[in-house]
Specification:
The complex is a heterodimer. Chain A is an alpha+beta fold. In chain A, about 70% of the residues lie in helices and about 15% in strands. Chain A has helices at about 1-90, 95-125, 125-130, 135-150, 170-190, 220-225, 230-240, and strands at about 155-160, 195-200, 205-210, 245-250, 255-260. The longest helix of chain A is centred in the N-terminal third of the chain and has 89 residues, at about 1-90. Chain A starts with a helix and ends with a strand. Chain B has one domain (about 5-215). Helices cover about 75% and strands about 0% of the residues of chain B. Chain B has 8 helices and 2 strands, in the order αααααααββα. Chain B has helices at about 5-20, 30-50, 60-80, 85-105, 115-140, 150-165, 165-170, 185-215; strands spanning about 175-180, 180-185. Chain B has a two-stranded antiparallel sheet. Chain B is globular, with a radius of gyration of 18 Å. Classes of the chains: A alpha+beta, B mainly alpha.
Chain lengths: ~260, ~220
């Protein structure tokens, strides 16, 4: 009987030890799982920081672009108009009433034109606020600016103007992408015809730009990994889970199609 | 000398730490656990006093487990409610424990140890602890386990109640003496109590660090 009791006691002691070991392993497992979770959490935080820094960069670039456009406009347009006004007013001979009247009328017309140009500039200054009014308006503004240059035959189909939904971060990136594409066309493409289409279908925003410029060798550009801001375009597209299709060949123009989940 | 058992010393240390750290906490949990530790301390010493005077003391433990059930259930409820609404499962658990206790009252004299309720509550508490772990793992937000007071408090409970399962089941079947009057059963309970109070003490220290960071 004593022997039986000892056996039971040993059994209970061993079983208790096993029962105590189980929570130990459980705690070890939870610790390891928590460590993985921590790494994942830190990685997520890192990605968020990278996204925020990229957004800031985009915002700065949009502002830079606006400032550049304003500077060009002031120098090339408003500046010239006002210089011409000064010249006209300086050449007035008050003794010759009829001619003086004509010159004053001309000056008035030049000043009015300058005012109109300045109003247009003021609109541009609100470029970033335009994004807040919707991506459609911002794209419209960008296109009308391009149109003003008069160097291109534009065909535009912007169906995003009446869009009711917005996504502030994506809107800013889309606007910057369009600015980058337009900049590339102005700087490198030597195009005469540009076609821009934008529309939203099944929660995907489509932006297509086709031009008939000199085009480029895609393989060479990819190998160089530089120029035309393509890297930054690809990086930003990846950030907002977008797709970019680019097709170009020397003397065949360029086709760019962007698809972004929206909003 | 019998008054100064290892369990008593561990309880005193834990009780002092509880008064110093979690009593003034904003949550009722701190007060409940401190009171429970006080009750455990008094019960332990009263039981030793009765034993020295050769007076039956099991009835005292039968009263004590009512406080034990309430305090541990409340503690687990406090930890689990951070992740989900635990009211339904705690109502069921409490219901089962109460039925077991009433069943004991009807079928056994009060001077017998309420082993059935102790066994049932051990299983229920262990299940709640495992459920807490599950919720902790499932939760999307990340917590630093090493310094998470609730985690260590629950771990202490799991060690104690899960570890005591075998001893509860075979209670009365083995009274093997290891050295002198010290039985294996007593050794197991001392070990379990030391683990429980060490975990709780660490949990209180973690809470103190949290309080310092928050202030």
């Amino acid at each position: 009987m004593q022997n039986e009791t000892t056996k039971i006691a040993i059994l209970v002691a061993i079983a208790t030890l096993v029962f105590l070991l189980m929570p130990v392993f459980l705690i070890l497992y939870i610790r390891s799982y928590a460590r993985h979770k921590k790494n994942h959490f830190l990685e997520k935080q890192n990605m968020q920081q990278r996204f925020e820094s990229e957004m800031l960069q985009t915002r700065v670039e949009v502002q830079d672009q606006t400032m550049q456009s304003i500077a060009t406009e002031l120098h090339d347009n408003v500046g010239q108009l006002l210089s011409l006004t000064t010249l006209t007013l300086n050449s007035i001979n008050i003794n010759d009433g009829e001619k003086a009247k004509k010159k004053i009328d001309n000056s008035l017309s030049l000043v009015n034109k300058s005012i109109k140009e300045l109003r247009e500039l003021a609109k541009l200054l609100h470029g970033e606020q335009l994004v807040e009014n919707g991506i459609g308006h911002a794209i419209d503004q960008e296109i009308s600016w391009l149109n003003k240059a008069g160097a291109y035959e534009l065909k535009v189909n912007n169906q995003l103007v009446d869009l009711q939904i917005t996504s502030s971060d994506k809107d800013l990136i889309i606007l910057r992408l369009l600015q980058e594409i337009i900049n590339n066309i102005i700087k490198h493409a030597q195009a005469t015809h540009i076609q821009i289409d934008t529309f939203l279908k099944n929660n995907v925003l489509h932006l297509t730009v086709v031009e008939n410029g000199v085009g480029f060798n895609m393989e060479e550009t990819k190998a160089k990994k530089s120029g035309m801001g393509l890297n930054s375009i690809y990086k930003r597209m990846e950030m907002i889970n977008g797709k970019l299709a680019l097709n170009s060949a020397p003397d065949k123009g360029t086709f760019i199609s962007i698809e972004i989940p929206y909003p | 000398m019998r008054y100064l058992s290892p369990i008593f010393i561990a309880e005193v240390i834990c009780f002092i730490a509880a008064i110093a750290i979690i009593w003034k906490d904003k949550y009722a949990f701190g007060k409940v656990i401190t009171c429970y530790l006080g009750i455990a301390l008094v019960t332990e010493e009263a039981a030793v006093y009765l034993a020295i005077r050769s007076i039956h003391n099991l009835w005292l433990f039968n009263i004590y487990i009512i406080f034990e059930i309430s305090a541990i259930l409340y503690g687990l409820y406090h930890c689990i409610r951070a992740y989900t609404n635990p009211k339904p499962i705690f109502t069921i658990g409490l219901g089962i424990i109460v039925i077991t206790y009433v069943f004991f009252l009807i079928t056994k004299p009060f001077t017998d140890l309420n082993v059935i309720t102790i066994s049932v509550m051990s299983v229920i508490f262990s299940l709640y602890c495992l459920y807490y772990y599950y919720l902790l793992l499932k939760d999307e937000s990340f917590v630093e386990i090493k310094t998470h007071p609730q985690f260590w408090w629950v771990s202490g409970v799991l060690f104690y109640y899960f570890g005591s399962t075998m001893a509860n089941i075979f209670d009365g079947l083995f009274v093997v003496k290891i050295i002198g009057f010290i039985t294996l059963k007593y050794t197991i309970y001392v070990l379990l109590n030391l683990i429980l109070y060490s975990f709780w003490l660490y949990s209180f220290i973690c809470r103190m660090k949290q309080q310092k960071l928050q202030s």
